[in-house]
Design goal:
Number of helices of chain A: 12
Strand content of chain A: 15-25%
Pfam families (chains A, B): Iso_dh (PF00180)
Order of helices and strands of chain A: EHEHHEHEHEEEHEHEHEHEEHHEEH
Structural class of chain A: alpha/beta
Largest sheet of chain A: 10 strands, mixed
Function (chains A, B): Catalyzes the oxidation of 3-carboxy-2-hydroxy-4-methylpentanoate (3-isopropylmalate) to 3-carboxy-4-methyl-2-oxopentanoate. The product decarboxylates to 4-methyl-2 oxopentanoate.
GO molecular function, one term (chains A, B): 3-isopropylmalate dehydrogenase activity
Shape of chain A: globular
CATH topology of the largest domain in chain A: Isopropylmalate Dehydrogenase
CATH superfamily of the largest domain in chain A: Isopropylmalate Dehydrogenase
Radius of gyration of chain A: 21 Å
Helix content of chain A: 25-40%
Oligomer: homodimer
Bound molecules: 3-isopropylmalic acid
GO biological process, one term (chains A, B): L-leucine biosynthetic process
CATH class of the largest domain in chain A: Alpha Beta
Strand order of the largest sheet of chain A: 2-1-3-12-11-4-5-10-8-9
CATH architecture of the largest domain in chain A: 3-Layer(aba) Sandwich
Distance between the termini of chain A: 23 Å
Cofactor (chains A, B): Mg(2+); Mn(2+)
Number of strands of chain A: 14
Amino acid sequence: MTSRIAVLPGDGIGPEIVEQAVRVLRALDLDLELTEAPVGGAAYAAKGHPLPEDTLALAKRADAILFGAVGDWKYDSLERALRPEQAVLGLRKALGLFANLRPAILYPELANASSLKPEVVAGLDILIVRELTGDIYFGQPRGVRTLADGPFAGDRQGYDTMHYAETEIRRIAHVAFQAAAKRRGRLCSVDKANVLETSQFWRDVMMDVAREYPQVELSHMYVDNAAMQLVREPKAFDVVVTGNLFGDILSDEAAMLTGSIGMLPSASLNASRQGLYEPSHGSAPDIAGQNVANPLATILSAAMMLRYSLDSASAADRIEAAVQSVLAQGLRTADIHEAGTTRVSTSEMGDAVLKAL
Amino acid sequence: MTSRIAVLPGDGIGPEIVEQAVRVLRALDLDLELTEAPVGGAAYAAKGHPLPEDTLALAKRADAILFGAVGDWKYDSLERALRPEQAVLGLRKALGLFANLRPAILYPELANASSLKPEVVAGLDILIVRELTGDIYFGQPRGVRTLADGPFAGDRQGYDTMHYAETEIRRIAHVAFQAAAKRRGRLCSVDKANVLETSQFWRDVMMDVAREYPQVELSHMYVDNAAMQLVREPKAFDVVVTGNLFGDILSDEAAMLTGSIGMLPSASLNASRQGLYEPSHGSAPDIAGQNVANPLATILSAAMMLRYSLDSASAADRIEAAVQSVLAQGLRTADIHEAGTTRVSTSEMGDAVLKAL
Ligand SMILES: CC(C)[C@H](C(=O)O)[C@@H](O)C(=O)O
Ligand SMILES: CC(C)[C@H](C(=O)O)[C@@H](O)C(=O)O
């Protein structure tokens, strides 16, 4: 059966890194139908909206979405509803992609790239499970209003609503517990239960779901402490599960611990295992079109796609082994280049992965 | 004129570290009236409430509050309103302590303590200005409700409200711009304006206040990126200003970059320069009563108190110089001890600071 993949390259370095991942997918002899469509700033420029109807329809029909990156300074002055990021939020919401899996892995060959001491990060392998369709991201009511009374009567006030329903917490909890059960068996749920009602409720539901997973050890940590412990002793973590807002912050912090965010893939899944796969890094408009960006995070995202949405774990293994092999050969794009290794371009890195497949 | 200081030691290591700071204050020959009162778990144990009325009244009357730390596992199962942290939140709210100043400074002598590479953190000197009485910490409505309709109808839902009024943003902006003007002239405002209405409003007001400070260079950064950049290149920051929730996370992350959180003081000020001064670290119940905790963050908090609330900059300078001197002498409590330095107890560290004064 043909698997349908929507290819959304986006802005900045998006097109050139996605191109390499597409080459890798095509080389695998799988029955894939790849269809490209514009998204983000590129879609706004072409069609007046960052997530045009055709693109959204294609994404909905697809078994999986291979996504590059969106965003460019050019679009910074647009009203929020038309900015590139809205495409990301729109896709998540429309497809119900509630489970964001963000591995933070430090490849032994790249230990020097980290700003942390090698002994603190060598062998790092954390999985951050971030809830992606709830929380304060989509909560209503929100806006700017004028206060009628209280200490700031007459003032304008910006406001947003954070919330989580029990069903939303349960389903992300199951994803996280199952991931932890397949890994080292430890799950840390991060919240701010000492201050937030949403967090206390989150914690209560997590504890309830935990009873179904006796093989997983659940712990709880406040988000401020988690931000500290990630810096102090990141290897103490196995799987972290948290809400959309805290997950946004902590998954980026964890990614940066590795110093090689150009290597980190991500998956955003819904209940029917349809998924959006994208590198953890952004669109880097400053280096776009120069053939210097690192395509490996996108290539590894394609591997995650094969594993989670297309049931092709063996093809995913092949890609991951090929990436390991190019690293072992000493090939490095500019972002991870150091003395004693061979600097290659985006397309040369793609060539090397194809050869290693 | 006598300055009135409320001394609130709290829980865990609070009493022993505050004791050393009190010794230092008494040694300065200033006209200070120090009055002690229970707070946190200790107050709950003694009087049934973490912030008893007498303690609150004392704090309100005081020119400044010297605070230790609150929290102990013993109180974890209490309902939220009676838990030790409520004392912290209650004092902030009752006294209007909206401006939290959290320096993250790495003393050259302690560069090895960091989990980051020395070249990344040596000479680090960031000031995080966190708004402390607004945001989602106190926002209403909040609670747990049952949903009547929508995709999760019938579900329970936890919810909170994030908000900032213009006046709240303006006053913290002024504190931050003034601090930046006295330092290296750079202010980075951290928000999540690509997602939150509160943040877009925050950003708009920041830009407006910026026009009064042409000598300060204002930049904006999303909170996820800030969490990354603090790890990647922390020395790129001078002053960071942000809301209560993001400030909670980022100030702890920044503190941990130094690896010596036992050295970091903090100040929480209101509009009349009344302030609460406390170490950035917590109550560490695991080492309480053992005379091993580091009292320097509390002693340096007393110095901040003299500078910001009691107009005694020269006395503050004396304390800070004395702390520098004990570090130069190689004296270290357990948390910052390393080979080649002399390990001392809490009270011995206090002795040494007194001697160096
Ligand atoms: C672009 C932005 C809306 C998005 C988010 O905050 O979720 C991004 O930071 C991410 O993490 O994918
Ligand atoms: C104890 C807790 C409520 C508090 C906060 O979140 O503000 C603490 O983490 C802090 O930063 O002082």
